[in-house]
Amino acid sequence: MKLATFTHGGVTRIGVVDGDTIVDLSVAAPALPREMCAFLAAGAEALAAARQAVQTSSARLPLKEVKLEAPILRPPKILAVGLNYKDHIAETGNKTPEVPVIFNKQSTSVNSPYGDIHLPRVSEQLDYEGELAFVIGRYCRHVPKSRAREVIVGYMIANDVSVRDWQRRVPTFTMGKSWDTHCPIGPWITTADEVGDPHALDLKTWVNGELRQHSNTSQLLFNCFDLVEHLSTVFTLEPGDVVSTGTPAGVAAAMKPPKWLKPGDVVKIAIEKLGEIENRVIAEPENTPRI
């Protein structure tokens, strides 16, 4: 299944993308939660009800007539991994990590799969990072790698947008990674049963039609199941947590000279079996909240 959050008629709710339509679960299965984290927390029965709705319900809307939102509007946690592809490690000049390099992006950085990315007022070093992300489907702790697939409900695309000068100011990455609009995700959550092996997916990133990144998730240094084991050793993972697994070579910062994103640029990321997201860069609007 392709689980989506969408807006139609001024109301935001969840549905299942089926071809060029979306099954509106608020109509097709009205007993189900209408927000993605609550839906995922409802577990296997909710997933089964959604699958049944796809088979039997006529409560469908043309996909082109709805606005796809971030599948998870406010994830409990957004956890990301640095230096997790060997070719990206090489282009940065860093040593290969012995354990995953984990940082967080604030939940307010979430952006829709087709929303605008803001170029900050205070920096011109705006960069893209095409990444595979996975979504946790149940509360869990101390998950061994051998059982990690049981707690991943599905996969989606993420752009770990980065403000490089702010990222490099201090050893921790959070301030350079957490700007508003700097975590486009989507276009939906493709459930794990449809993806199969998450470590054999082709990944591509284009900027204005120029292919900048091309790799495969088989090249991950620490794969999705490694990451579940590592993270759940420390804290509870919750339904709706997003883990973005790292980016391959080809980021703007590694180019000579760097090709920073600028207003008008369009970043498109596609991952095999998961679809694509596309985001335009704009100058940070003057009406963004301020004191």
Q: Report the β-strand fraction as a percent range.
A: 25-35%
Using the coordinates shown, work out and report the CATH topology of the largest domain: Fumarylacetoacetate hydrolase, domain 2
CATH level-1 class of the largest domain: Alpha Beta
Q: Quick one: overall form?
A: globular
Low-confidence stretches: none
Write the layout of secondary structure elements.
Blueprint: E1 2-8, E2 11-18, E3 21-24, H1 25-28, H2 36-41, H3 44-56, E4 60-62, E5 67-68, E6 78-82, H4 86-92, E7 101-104, E8 110-111, E9 117-119, E10 126-127, E11 130-136, E12 152-159, E13 162-163, H5 164-168, H6 174-177, E14 183-191, H7 192-195, E15 202-207, E16 210-216, H8 224-234, E17 242-244, E18 266-271, E19 275-283
Parallel strand pairs: 6-17, 8-14, 9-19
Antiparallel strand pairs: 1-2, 1-5, 1-14, 2-3, 3-4, 6-7, 10-13, 11-12, 11-17, 12-14, 15-16, 15-18, 18-19
Keywords:
8 helices; globular; Fumarylacetoacetate hydrolase, domain 2; 291 residues; alpha+beta
Describe this protein's structure:
The protein is an alpha+beta fold. The chain folds into 2 domains: 2-68, Fumarylacetoacetase, N-terminal domain (SH3 type barrels, Roll), CATH 2.30.30; 78-283, Fumarylacetoacetate hydrolase, domain 2, CATH 3.90.850.10. 19% of the residues lie in helices and 33% in strands. It has 8 helices and 19 strands. The protein has helices spanning 25-28, 36-41, 44-56, 86-92, 164-168, 174-177, 192-195, 224-234; strands at residues 2-8, 11-18, 21-24, 60-62, 67-68, 78-82, 101-104, 110-111, 117-119, 126-127, 130-136, 152-159, 162-163, 183-191, 202-207, 210-216, 242-244, 266-271, 275-283. Strands 1, 2, 3, 4, 5, 6, 7, 8, 11, 12, 14 and 17 form a 12-stranded mixed β-sheet that branches. It has a 5-stranded mixed β-sheet with strand order 9-19-18-15-16, with no helix packed on it. It has a two-stranded antiparallel ribbon with strand order 10-13. Strand 1 (2-8) and strand 2 form a beta hairpin. The longest helix has 13 residues, at 44-56. The chain is globular. The mean pLDDT is 97.
